Amino acid sequence: HTFDPEDVSLLLASKEGDNFDIEIYLQDVERIKKYYFDNGFFNVIVDTGLVFNMADDEVIEKFIITENIRYRYNNIKYSGIENTDDIVKNKIFKSSDKLLFGGRFYSKDTINQEVNRVLNILFNNGYATALSGKPEILKYETNEEKFKNKVDITLIFIPKIKYRFGKTNVTFTDKRYNVSKEDIFRELTFSEDQTYDKSEVINSEINLSKISLIENPRINIEEIDSINNKVNFSIDALIRSKYDFTPELFGYYFQQVFYLGAGISFTDKNFFGGGRVLTSSLRFYFHSFDDNRLEFVNSIYQPFLFRNRNISGTWNIGAEYRL
């Protein structure tokens, strides 16, 4: 068998110890058929058998699988991308990135992965509203050796219009703490009139998440302007509390000595503005009445240095006292 029986058994809804249910048993048969079909065994046969053990009130379920021939890809076509930019077509057909090749076994999962790969290329090169259709699969029924046990695959894409970035509107749910639109715009990796690129939107969200004062930042599509071929965005900045006090309880092993400790940390999530984060911690370490310590530590996180969002830094300064 191509697949490990233990892996196939994981598909089953029926589990050892459950009450026998004929409907679930028949559904398990269909699950096995689908699994094999999705992996190229289009003519798989799943026979069944039940053995009843009256003494123990048990039933043993049997599934007898006849795989038959596993189909391979013959021709693989990409429909709908003929009028896209050359750079897009080059990325789509780059052999080191492609997942489908003639001669390999059919796999529905791999087809779906290839569709997603192409869609991401389209999304990242201006085609913000690109869609995919249901792949067309042609199965050959012939004894001609060239086409025997082969399928042709056509992946269907609808790129639609190529877009550029439009305006980005920022609104604040709270005016506290002097968080400015400049703080938001500084973290965006895209600019107006640049070719739309979904990956830049994701990168910008990651950058915004570094601003501790903003809760769960999201960049949302506000409008798709098909007249000017632009995508306009909105950012609703939810401002969270600037200050946090956090109690601490910990164990610490230092220089072959174990300490029990307790402390408290204070955090300012917008220290002197600009998204800087100050964390001040006071900690007491106890090992014995003759060996204990008091520690005070300040840490400042700077989300950008020299007005460059790609460079960040953390400064630490503190003092330790033996008591």
Tag the structure with descriptive keywords.
four-stranded mixed sheet; single chain; 323 residues; alpha+beta; five-stranded antiparallel sheet
Descriptive notes:
With 323 residues, this protein is an alpha+beta fold. Helices cover 19% and strands 39% of the residues. It has helices spanning 5-9, 22-37, 86-92, 108-123, 181-186, 198-208, and strands spanning 45-53, 58-66, 72-79, 131-132, 136-139, 150-158, 164-172, 214-215, 219-225, 230-239, 243-254, 257-268, 277-288, 291-302, 313-322. The protein has a five-stranded antiparallel beta sheet with strand order 11-12-13-14-15, with no helix packed on it. A hairpin with a 2-residue loop joins strand 11 (243-254) and strand 12. The chain is flat and about 85 Å long. It starts with a helix and ends with a strand. The model has no long low-confidence stretch (mean pLDDT 89).
